[in-house]
Amino acid sequence: MMYHPFATMMAFSWTSALLIYFLIFVLPVMQIIHKAGYSRAWVLIGFVPVVNLIFLWIFAFSRWPIENRVK
To answer: Model pTM greater than 0.90?
Structure first.
């Protein structure tokens, strides 16, 4: 079976794009969530359509665990 060079290039570009997305967006969001007192695993909600918007509103207006520790 012959592999087309374009298919290899496309696979590399998708992989590169996902890595860049992870470094630019996901890592900082994980750090913000952690500083707020939540588990970094909550960043996975960002990949679920509609649920991510609901979580964003809940996250923005709920009492953060870090606020309980400060007082």
So the answer is: no
